[in-house]
Amino acid sequence: MKEKINLIISILFGGLLANTGLNKLLPKDLKYMPKPEMLDAAKATMRALVESGWIWEMVGVSQIIGGVLLMIPRFRALASIILLPVNIGIFLFHAIQDAPERMPMSIMILAINIWLIYDCRKKYKPLFNK
After folding, report:
1. How many CA atoms lie within 13 A of 72 on its CB side?
2. CA angle, corner 66, sides to 64 and 69, nearest 5?
3. Nearest to 69 by CA among 12, 7, 14
4. 49-55: Cβ within 8 A, 24+ apart
5. Which of 13, 29, 89, 129 is the most buried (most CB within 10 A)?
6. Domain with 78 in it
7. What secondary structure letter does DSSP report for 35?
8. Is position 102 within any domain?
9. How many whole angstroms separate alpha carbon 32 and alpha carbon 97?
10. How far are the Cα atoms of 17, 24, 26, 32 from residue 61, in angstroms, in the given order?
11. How many structural domains does the chain have?
12. 33 vs 20: CA distance, rounded Å
């Protein structure tokens, strides 16, 4: 039962992240997700990430790859680690610069990621053995 719940969460979570990553890579006229209204500091940060020419795209590619891999049970442990820095960045962005009403979603994203890492902890164990 636990494995089925984890599979459903992984598919939904992976789909969400892959979807937002895809939206980052599309040209402006093809974007299908509306931009929420942001505070001025948050707008400046987003503008800097987009204008960097590579950071925004790297985040999008990481979200797509991590999201797709998350949906495949064999690669769930790898995908959780790939997505952790991105999800920490999302959480910190909302905690520091963005409107507080978006904090619950970023907390949920980070909590799901941490839960999946915790659930895959046996797969990481060989990395820490001498």
Report:
1. 8
2. 105
3. 14
4. none
5. 13
6. 2-26+37-128
7. P
8. yes
9. 24
10. 10, 9, 11, 17
11. 1
12. 8
User: CA–CA separation, 130 vs 100, rounded Å?
Assistant: 44
Extract the tokens encoding 101: 């009403």
Q: Report yes or no on 31 lying in a domain.
A: no
> What is the distance between the alpha carbons of residues 80 and 114, in angstroms, rounded to a whole number?
8
Pick the closest to residue 18 from 67, 59, 52, 54 (CA basis): 67
Measured distance CA(47)–CA(67) in Å, rounded? 24
Residue type for 117, please? I
Closest-CA residue to 6 (of 74, 99, 55): 74
The answer to whether residue 44 sits within a structural domain is: yes
Q: Is residue 108 part of a domain?
A: yes
Question: Rounded CA gap, 40 and 43, in Å?
Answer: 5
